C-alpha cells in the first residue's frame, strides 16, 4: 500500500494546535514563514512517499544479515539513506555552525513523523544520530565537536546509544561496562551492550557509538556512570576494538539491525569522555528527552500509515449491504462498525500528533524565546508533555495498527497485505527509550511536581480556556464536544490533585499504582483540547468562507473523539483515585 | 516458557461461575461427578503441558511446507496429534453411538482452552472437526453419518469448513462456488475457497471438507447456498478432485496450514449434500455457533499462556528498587505498575473464561435439561452469550498478549522469548469465525431481541442478584466491588434499553453504531458478576476454614476487576447512547 504524507493535516496541527503561528509571530523561528515551512514539508512528504515508503515491505522481508561482523541492510536501503542525507534531511534541525539548517524541532518533528510513516525501521536510525548531536553540542569538547559534529549533522556518519546490558535495561544503575584511563587522555572501553539499534550497518563509512561505562574508581549506582564516544573507525582509519557479535530476530522493524556490541575484545576500544567523569547519565538524559519525543512520533507515524491503509481497503472492499444502501454489496466503509473503527484510528492519531507537536514547540520555545521566564515555563511544559507524547502515542500506535489489521478482516492476517507489519513494527515503540510504564512514573513522580505543580496547573488551565471557547461555539456539528471534554478535564484535574498530594505526602505507591491510567487520562484531556483548538480554527475558517472539506472533517473528528474516546476519562479517574488499594492484595492475587 | 494448565482455576470457574455444580445436581451430566471431571481435566492438563506445549515454538519457526500439493506439518506434530487422538481427547464430547464419550460441552470447553494454551495452531484443527461432527449429526443422512462420523469423532480423520471465497468473506451471499447434480445422486463441486484452516496436512489419512456452493438453479443470495461433504479420498481410495493450491504466509499460528483449495480442476469434486438443497447456510450456522465459542476459548487460552509467561518473567527479572523494598534490585513484580499490568492480564483472562464457560453450560442445558422451558431459556442464554464469549475473549486475548510483551520489556520484542508469538497468534481470533464487529452486530440486532428482550433482561437480573449478595458480604477485601459492579450493570441496563428501542423502532444504524462498545460493556458487567460469584464462593470457603491461598486471590482479583476495569462501563454507556450521532459526520471526517 502506498503512503501519502498528510501534509495539510500536519501543517494545520502545527499551526492551530501546536502554536506554530504564535512562535513565528514571536520571532522564534527567524526568517521562517508558514509558506516556507509548508514547502519544506511538501518536499519531505514527496521524499517519504517516493523513496522511503516503497522500501518498507522489502526491508521487512529481506531484513538485515550479519556475516563476519559486517551487517548488510536490505536492497535499496544504502541508496535511499544516501539520497536522504544528500538532500539535506538529516541536517534539517542541526546547528548552523556545523553545517545544519538550524530549523525548528517542531518542523523536524513533522518530518520525523513522515520518515517513520514511510518506514519505522528507516526512521529510527537518524533519531539516534540526532541524539548524539545534541549530547555533543551540550557536553562534547571542542576537539570532539570538530571531529564528529559536521559528519553527524550531515548524516555522512550515524551514531548509536549504548546503554542497555543484559542485567541493566530500565535500571541503568546496574551498568557494568568498564572504562579505564589511558596515558594519552583517552579511555579504553570493555564490555558488552545489547539491543543497540543500528549498532553495525553498511549505510555509512563510520559509526559513532556513545557508550555508558564505569571508571574503576567510580561510585556504585547511577552516579558512577560516564559517557564515552567510541568511533567504529579512528581518525587514522584503523578499526577500533568494537564489533557486532550478533543481531536479534525481532517481532518487527526487521530492516533495522539490533546488535549485541562487544567493546574491547583485545586491548579495549578507544573512547573519549563526553562531559565529566561520573556524570554520564545526565549527558545521556540530554539526548533521551528528545529521543522520547521522536519515539512518540513513531507511534503517530505508524498509526497514520495503518489508518491510510485501512481507509484505502475499506473504500475498495465490498461486503454486505450497509443500512440504507442501494442493492448489492457496499464498500465496507459504509458499515457503521467499520466507520467507528476508522474514526477511532483517525481520532487517536490526530490527538497523539497534536500532543507530540505541542511538545516540540515547547522544546523550541525553551531554547529560542528571548524572555527567560517564557523559556523556563516552556521547558517545564515540554518536560511535562514529553512522557505523555512518548507513551500515549506509542500505545495508540499499537492500538491503531491492531484496528488496522481488524478492518482488513482475514486479509489483515496475511503478511503480503502489509497491515500486520505495521502492528509488528509498532509494538517496539512502547518499549524502547524507556518503557511506557517508566514514562508514566516519570510523569507522576517527577513532572507533576515541577514548579510545585504550577506546570501541570497551567496546562490544565489552558485546556479549560479552550473548552470555554468551544462552549461559545454555536456550530451544531460540535454536538456534545464541550461537555464531554469539560468532564474529561475536570477528571484530570481531580486525579492530578490526588497524585500531587500522594507524591508530596511521601506516599509514592499511591501515585505509582495509578501512573499508567493517569497518563492516559492526561492524554485524553490534552488530546481532546488540542483537537478542539483545531475544530475551533476550522469553524472560524468555514465562517470566513473557506470551503476546504478538511475543515468540517476536523470538527467531526473532534466531536467523535469527545463523544466516543474522551468519555473514558471518568473510569480512568476512578482507577487513579483507587490508588494503591489494590496493591495491598496484589501479591495475593498473583499467586494462586 | 513452559505452560502449566491452571486446572484448579478452571474447575473453580466451572463450579462457581458457570453452574457446573447445579447442572450436576439437576442430573444433566448423567454419572459424571465433580471429582471425575477434575481427574479428567488434570489428565488433559498433563497432556497439554507435556506433549503439546513443547511443540509450540518449533511449530512457529518451522511452520508448514507445501510441495506438490502436499502439506507437511512441523516436526513432531503428526506424532503429537496421533497421541492426542489415541488418548481419546478428540472423542471427549462426541456422540456415544459413534464412539464418543458424550461428555459435556462445558467439560470439553475447559479442555479446548488447555489445548489452545498449549498451542493455538494445534488447537484450531480439532475445532473444525468438531463443527463438522455437529453438522453431520444435525443434518447428515444416515449414509454419510455411517461413513464419516466415527472417524471424525475419534479424530482419525479431520474436517474443514469451506466458506470463504475472495469476494465472499463476511458476506456469504456472494459465494460463487458451483455444485452440479450428478446422475448417481451425488454432486460435482467446482470453485475456489480461501483461508481454509488445515485444508491440507499430513496428520491424518483423510480430510473431510464441508463446502458451501450453489446449485445451477439456486436463488441468488444466502437462500441459494447448499452444504456439501467433499472427502479428500473417496471410499474406494481414489483421490477426489480437490487440491491445495497454496498456503498463506501469516502473522501467526504458523504451524496451522491456511490453504487455498481448488475444487474441480478436472471433472468436479465428488460431493454429497448435507441437509437440504439451498439450506446450507442454516446447516453451517449449526456448527458455527459452537465454533464461535471455541474461538472465544482460544482468546482465553492465549491470554492464560501470555499471563503465565509474563508472571514467570516478572518473578525472575530484577530491575530497580520497588517502593519499600530492601537494598538492591527488586523482582519487577514488586513494582506497582508491573503489578497493575499482571493483574489486568489475569483479571481479563478470568472474566473471559467465566463468560465462555457460562456459554458452554448454556449449550449443555439447552440440549440436556428434561424441562422444555429450561431448555429454551438456556438456548436463549447461550445464544445471547455466544457473541460476547467470542468477541470479548478474543479482544482481550490480543490485549493480554500485548501486555505480556510489555512486561518483558526489550526481551518481549525478541522472538526467541516467545511472548511475541502469543501476540501474533492471538491476532487471528478477533477475525475468524465472524469478525468481532459481526459478533457485536449479532448481539445487538439478533440476540438482544430474543424472546422480546426477555433473555437479556433475565441475564441482567441474574447479575443484579449477584451484586445484592456482594453488598451483604462484609469481608473487607471486597473494597468497592459491590458499588463499582452495580454501576456497570446499571450502565448495561440503560444501554440495553437504548439498543432494544433502536432495533424495535427500525433505527438499526442507532444500534449498529454502538454495537462494539455495547458488547464490551456487556462483557464488563457479565464478567464482573461472574468474578463476584467466584469471590463469594471463595469467601464462603474461607469462612468455613478452607486455607487455600487461591481463595483470597479470587476475592482480590474480583476487586481489582471491579475497581480498575469495570469502571470503564460508564464511558462505554455514553458511547452507546451517543448512537449514530457521529455517523452523520463520519464520511465527512473520513475524507480529508
Word description of this protein:
The structure is a homodimer of 592-residue chains. Chain A has 592 residues and is of the alpha+beta class. Chain A has three domains: 7-154, Butyryl-Coa Dehydrogenase, subunit A, domain 1 (Orthogonal Bundle); 158-278, Butyryl-CoA Dehydrogenase, subunit A, domain 2, CATH 2.40.110; 436-592. Helices cover 57% and strands 10% of the residues of chain A. Chain A contains 20 helices and ten strands. Chain A has helices at residues 7-16, 20-25, 34-52, 56-62, 77-86, 105-118, 120-139, 142-154, 280-316, 336-368, 372-407, 419-426, 436-447, 454-472, 481-504, 508-513, 515-543, 550-565, 569-577, 583-589; strands spanning 65-67, 70-72, 158-162, 178-181, 187-197, 207-213, 226-231, 242-247, 258-263, 269-274. In chain A, the strands form two sheets. In chain A, strands 3, 4, 5, 6, 7, 8, 9 and 10 form an eight-stranded mixed β-sheet that branches. In chain A, strands 1-2 form a two-stranded antiparallel sheet. In chain A, strand 4 (178-181) and strand 5 form a beta hairpin. The longest helix of chain A has 37 residues, at 280-316. Chain A is globular. Chains A and B meet through helix 10, helix 11, helix 12, helix 13 and helix 16 of A and helix 10, helix 11, helix 12, helix 13 and helix 16 of B.
The poorly predicted ranges of chain A are none
Instruction: Report how far apart the termini of chain A are.
Output: 47 Å
Q: Which assembly state applies to the chains in this document?
A: homodimer
Number of helices of chain A: 20
Largest sheet of chain A: 8 strands, mixed
Largest two-chain interface? A-B, 101 and 101 residues
Total number of distinct structural domains of chain A? 3
Radius of gyration of chain A: 24 Å
Strand content of chain A: 5-15%
H/E element sequence of chain A: HHHHEEHHHHEEEEEEEEHHHHHHHHHHHH
Note the overall shape of chain A: globular
On the 0 to 100 scale, the average pLDDT of chain A is 96
Percent of residues in helices of chain A comes to 55-70%
- Please report the total strand number of chain A as a whole number: 10
Q: Which structural category do the helix and sheet elements of chain A fall into? A: alpha+beta
